[in-house]
Every structure is written in C-alpha cells, then in structure tokens.
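Late entry, written up from scratch paper. The run itself happened at the end of the previous shift, but nothing got recorded in the book at the time, so transcribing now.
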Amino acid sequence: MNTIDRTSRLAVEYTLSWSSGTMTHLERYFAEPVSVWRDVLPDGLSAALLGQGEGARAEVAVPADRFHAPRDERRVVRVRPAQFQGRDRAGRPLLPRVGRYYPQGLLHGVGGVYSQSTSPCRFLGREGDNLVFDLNHPLAGRDLHLRAEVLRVHPPHKERGGRCEDWLDQISAGGPGMQAPPADGVVDFFDPEGFRRDDDRPDHLFYEQPRLVQHLDSTCRAEIEHQYGRLIAPGAEVLDLMGSWTSHLPQELPLGGLTVLGLNNEELRANPRATAAVIHDLNREPVLPFADGSFDAVLCTASMEYLLDPRQAAREIGRVLRPGGVAALSFSNRWFPPKAVRLWADLHEFERLGLAAALLAGAGCFDGITTLSRRGAPRPPDDPHWQLPFSDPLYLVWARKNGIGQ
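Output as recorded:
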C-alpha cells in the first residue's frame, strides 16, 4: 500500500458541511490529482494525512473569519434600477426577484464589478428608490467544516512545477451557499410566469411514447442509488413519483413494496422492482390517489422540474408519508426543456436546491431538511457525452416527516 508523503498525488473526496438556520448542507467534491507538495489545503489537513494510506480521513474547521472570502458589509451595494440591466428570455427588462441570485455583470456602474463577471449577487429588495444587492460570496459569514477522504494514493511522482489548486476555493466555487435562504427567509420563487412551459400540451401526449433510456450517466445514477439506500429503511413501503422503468434503488435493499406513479404504462411495467404501477398526471390532478400515511418513503428523481404546482405536490408528499418517513427530491442538470417550467432554466443549479428545500419547508410537516451536492467526478467512459470532463452532478434534498410520538 502506498503511504502518503510530501510527494504523493491523491484522489480525494471532500465534504464541505455547513448550516443555515434549521437546514444542513453538504457539498461533496471529487478531486484528482491532489498534490500534497504543490496544492493548497486548509491548515492542518495535509499534516493529518501524512503517513496514512487509502481510506485515510482528516477533518478541519474553517471558521467564517478564516474563509478565503470573508463577509464584508461594504459589498452590500445600493444601485438605481437603471443600473440593473438584465433581460429575460423574451428580451424584456428583467425584474429582479427578492432572494434570488443574478450575475454581478448585470450591475453597471458599481466599483470593482465588470460586465463579464458571472459571480453571483443576491437581490435583497428595495430600499426607497434603490435596489439592494449583496455581492458577498454565498458562503461568506458561514462557519464551515471540511472533511477529506483519500480514495487512492498514486505512486510517488517527482514534480517540479504545474498548476497550484486551492481546494477549498475550488469546492466552494460554482454555487455552494446559493441554496440557503437569506436571513429573513424570503426567496421569491413562485411568480406564476415562472411556472409556464414552452410546450403546454397535455402531458400524456408528450409521454405517450415510451423512453426506455437512462437520462443520467452511470456515476450519477450510482450515487443516487447509494443515497436512497442510505435514507430508506429495509422493509419500507416506497412511492416513486413521476417514475419510469427504474427507481434507482439498491438491489440488495428489501422493500415492503414499491409503487411507481407516472404517465407511460410501458415504462412503469418495465420497472423490475415495482409491486404496483399507477397512471396519474400530477399536473392535471395534484391530489395523490393514496390515503394519508400510506408510505415510509417518497422519491422524486429528475422530475420535479416538470411540476406546475410543486407546493401542492410537496404538501401531498407530506400527507401520504407516515411520521418519520423520508421525502427525497433529486435531480441533475439534464431535463426535457419543452416540458420543464421556465423557472427551472432561469435558476442557478444551486438555487434549484434552494427551491426544493423551500418546497419541503413550506409543506409545514418536515424536520431535518438537508441538501447535498456532488460534483467533480470524472465522466464514465460508457457515457455518450464522453467528451465532457465531469460526470453529471447530483443535487439531492431530503427531510423526514415530523410527528413521531405526538
């Protein structure tokens, strides 16, 4: 077994954890190669790994004042409405929504902000005639915790140069933090215009042709399966909402039953683990055809972007769950654009996590809301999009129905 020393290169799974109010957030990031000699890691993390081998773990706290982008109140700016120059999909002036994120490059005449900037800023609302935006990093002001798990130790390799990676910067870039609501808890996700679709034909017409294909790559699917297996207890009665021919459940997980609800009979009957198949259009009839407390787990995989009334769907998920039952909403960055609601395309990927968390919070019956992102894994060679460097990211939100012992 190779031992980690100053010359080692590693494959590492990082997990960045943090909290916002009552919610917990986990950001997992696969990194390879990690150079112990050259790359930047938080204080103490490298030293804790030296002398160990594959499977080694090390953890370090990153207090808010030691984060690479600490919070600075001077980065909360007030601008005139004319300085926000965004356009919507139809080319009309964009109306910023409270709590939502926008590229900083849409702000004109703000010192240190350039039109090419895609860094996020959050719209906090109006202050008199001005618009207020927070340009701080979405994780600024948060106490963080970083764990590293060594998956592989490559043979010694002499390095004389190369690119230096700051792994905390890499892990925290690209959206983590955007899923948390602001201090006042208000995010305007639910403008009715956002829940229109480019293809408004009845859904059964779109789904009448069976699609017995995988929509996510094998690495992403394996991670969904792993997470579902971790969340669902053996013997559980499970409902797969807006399901198809696979429910992404571990084969070795024994179930009390699996009900798959969807729109294509051939797809549902091809699901090898289904014990019941139900044809039901949630967009036409949002009330689920099940009694209260019928299930121990409700899953919705790569489908919530098609819901016209996701708040009602979240309430229905809560209704049909037993106390202590788990609701799990997962998705990636692939979907059928004509049938997805317009809001979905407008949101940043991490804002979609925020939307899913807001839906469970708004249902009023869930505790322990947790969000998970997983990024950075190499794209599997069996995927037709092999030319892309990374596997499909996974975004998952779960919570448990309250009421045990009440």
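The chain has three domains: 9-68+141-159, 73-134, 192-401.
(Scratch paper discarded after transcription.)
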